[in-house]
Amino acid sequence: MDGKKLSHCTIVLFLGLLFLTASPANALLDCVTGVIPSLLPCQNFLTNLLPILPTTQCCSAAKNFTGLDSPKNLCQCLKLNLLTSGILSFKLELLPNLCSITGLLDIVSCIVQPSTPKLPTA
């Protein structure tokens, strides 16, 4: 591993540890053992360009995910894990509409800032 990659990994690890030590113990346990594993059926969809549609198992998991905790806590958990998980943020942004899950919109919008198209200037 070259110096830049090692430095980047160290920063990510430090931020993760900082987040974990600032969180209550039960929130940490829920995030690590409950929240992130609950999205495993979506891993292929969220981390790869293909497939372009999530599976029914992924949509079911995403629907269950919204009921695990408050949107704020779920957002914080996902924000921390986006740094290290390889999730493509644009695929996460598509998930609520593709799976018809309105409760997921608040969580995703907290993580992914909507992109506004830029008009060409003359």
TrEMBL record:
UniProtKB keywords: Signal
Entry keyword Signal: yes
Gene3D superfamilies the UniProt entry points to: Plant lipid-transfer and hydrophobic proteins (1.10.110.10)
InterPro entries, sorted: Bifun_inhib/LTP/seed_sf (IPR036312), Bifunc_inhib/LTP/seed_store (IPR016140)
Top-level taxonomic group: Eukaryota
Signal sequence bounds: 1-27
This protein's record includes keyword Signal: yes
Protein name as annotated: Bifunctional inhibitor/plant lipid transfer protein/seed storage helical domain-containing protein
Species: Sesamum alatum
